[in-house]
Amino acid sequence: MEQLKTKAYGTKASLIDQFSSLSRMDIERNPPQSDELLIDILYCGVCHSDVHQVTNDWSNTIYPCIPGHEIVGRVVQAGTGVTKFNVGDVVGVGCMIDSCGKCSSCTGGDEQYCEGPVSWTATYNGYMKPNGNGYNTFGGYSTNIVVKEAFVLKIPDGLDIKAAAPILCAGVTTYSPLRHWGVKEGDKVGIVGLGGLGHMAVMLAKAMGAEVTVLTTKEEKRAAAEELGAHKVILSDDKEAMTQNELSLDFILITIPDKFDVNPYVSLLKRNGHLVTVGLLGPYKSATDNMEIAFHRRSMSGSLIGSIQETQDVLDFCAQHSILPHIEMIPIQDINKAYKKMLDEEVRFRYVIDMQSLKDEQ
Fold first, then answer.
1. Cα separation, 348 vs 334, whole angstroms
2. Based on the domain organization, do 234 and 147 belong to the same domain?
3. CA-CA distance, 125 to 122, in Å (whole number)?
4. Domain holding 28: CATH number?
5. Does a structural domain hold residue 315?
């Protein structure tokens, strides 16, 4: 069958030159099989992990790399075996497009923890455990994508599709641990970091009935935190304020994407409290003080994106509670500037690419 010609933006090498080489590329996609959908991409969110991936920060990048895993689009072709979607439906694609489907994690509804030989398949950059065969996938910085029906999400009618894309990563990455650890009405929840993930976490936790405290190093983010619904803001580099708030929180979600010292935050947990890190894929900046963990029976954990069902759940939850990411729309031609501004923390809070800008390129 004839390949689908697709316009895209990506890179053929690590962007060591301050993001000057993310540029137009032309790729081909396979036509949809019986259980697949061809999706015309309308909008794509820009995630901090896109920067990590194109610069090979995690030492697993397969080049060429075409990022993008917060995709909202419209179905333009459905395979003969597709039953849940029709041509014209507005749909979403998040961080995964496949998994083994057979292991205990997959059959238990946790595809993001797939135990198969190569783990789950990422929307871009191929298998999470590259097996040496060079297999790659290309993401949403492109005009279309082909995805299995089982990994496609329905965008609820109540969501503005121009702003909904970041829910597919930033939303589910924070929703999943909040739900898994049972955050409920009356709980005192701390959100560390107020970027793309953090601002979603504040709104989600508040909608669950929690009393939300934002921890940040930047005084200028206080007003934004309060606008999002935070009940309290603590400057984490204010030692006196941190001491005054020891043993005050039931649950802490840390969204910082780079190495940091976790110990100051552990002390804020109550007895039996939980601390979960979602932004950092790597070691902490310093060793964890297990005395602080043991003396109050605190626990620490991590969480990875979310399952397909959790992604649908968070989309529905956001529609029910009128939650939308705070976004800034950009054309694809501004993607390199956007990456630099993300690193300089100059975006509030998520960039979304209008993919019409790429379709219009000659």
1. 16
2. no
3. 6
4. 3.90.180.10
5. no
The model carries a pTM of 0.95
Which residues, including other chains, have CB under 8 Å from residue 97's CB and lie 6 or more apart? 121, 122, 123, 137, 147, 148, 151
Domain region containing 122:
4-169+326-359
355 and 293: one domain? no
pLDDT band at 349 (very low <50, low <70, confident <90, very high): confident
Same domain, residue pair 198 and 338: no
Is position 321 within any domain?
no
DSSP character at residue 261: -
pLDDT digits 0-9 by tens, 296-333: 999 999 999 999 999 999 999 999 999 999 999 999 99
Q: Which residues of 336-349 are buried (b: 16+ CB within 10 A; e: fewer)?
A: bebbebbeeeebeb
Domain shared by 243 and 261, yes or no: yes
Q: What is the pLDDT of residues 140-177, one digit of tens each?
A: 999 999 999 999 999 999 999 999 999 999 999 999 99
Return the sign of the alpha-carbon dihedral for residues 63, 69, 74, 76. positive
pLDDT for res 133: 67
Identify whether residues 18 and 158 lie together within a single domain: yes
How many separate domains does the chain show?
2
DSSP run (H or E) holding 301: strand 299-302
Environment class of residue 27 by beta-carbon count within 10 Å: exposed (0-12), middle (13-18) or buried (19+)? middle
pLDDT at 19 over 70: no
The β-bridge relationship of strands 249-254 and 188-192 is parallel
Both 165 and 190 in one domain: the answer is: no
